[in-house]
Design a protein that fits this description.
Keywords: Activator, DNA-binding, Nucleus, Phosphoprotein, Repressor, Signal, Transcription, Transcription regulation. It comes from Stegastes partitus. GO terms for molecular function: DNA binding; DNA-binding transcription factor activity; protein dimerization activity. Residues 1-17 form the signal peptide. Residues 30-86 form the BHLH domain. The protein has helices at residues 2-56, 72-119, and strands spanning 133-135, 141-143. The protein has a two-stranded antiparallel sheet. Among the domains are: 2-56; 72-117. Helix content is 60%, strand content 4%. The protein is mainly alpha-helical.
């Protein structure tokens, strides 16, 4: 009888231990499944971000349907090149804007001087037309009214756009 009781108690302990292990394994499996789902979501987000970046870079836009797609390293390299190109282009455009502002200020100053001279009826007939000319880097004359800039809007990151730099010379 004692032996039966002892065997039953051992069997009960073993059954409880097996249930505990089963629950523990189930919890571990749930944790692993949750971790795997989070990791899959993270990888999908990175993949989608690379696709979005690839689609944003003009040099890579035609590659989403091609057989050989760009690797992640190639996407990052091309994106870096494009960003550097756009920075140079923005800097060039900002220089053009600054030059045009200077040119505009000079023209406004000339208009005020002419209006003042006209108002005093002392308009000088020997006003030189050369005062409305500027010179570009090559030394050729550029009229204040032609804009003086031929910046290109091409999307070639390899070559900086050609542009005329205006230099204001006092008259």
């Amino acid at each position: 009888m004692f032996l039966k009781l002892w065997i039953l108690s051992r069997a009960f302990v073993v059954v409880r231990f097996m249930k505990f292990q089963s629950k523990l394994c189930s919890l571990q499996a749930d944790k692993r499944a949750h971790h795997n789902a989070l990791e899959r979501k993270r990888r999908d987000h990175i993949k989608d971000s690379f696709h979005s970046l690839r689609d944003s870079v003009p040099a890579l836009q035609g590659e989403k349907n091609s057989i050989k797609q760009a690797s992640r390293a190639q996407i990052l390299d091309k994106a870096t090149e494009y960003i550097q190109y756009m920075r140079r282009k923005n800097h060039t455009h900002q220089q053009d804007i600054d030059d045009l502002k200077k040119q505009n200020a000079l023209l406004e100053q000339q208009v005020r001087a002419l209006e003042k001279a006209k108002g005093n009826t002392q308009l000088q007939t020997n006003y030189s037309s050369d005062s409305s000319l500027y010179t570009n880097r090559k030394g050729s004359a550029v009229s204040a009214f032609d804009g003086g800039s031929d910046s290109s809007s091409e999307s070639e990151p390899d070559e900086p756009p050609n542009r005329k730099k205006l230099r204001v010379e006092p008259s």
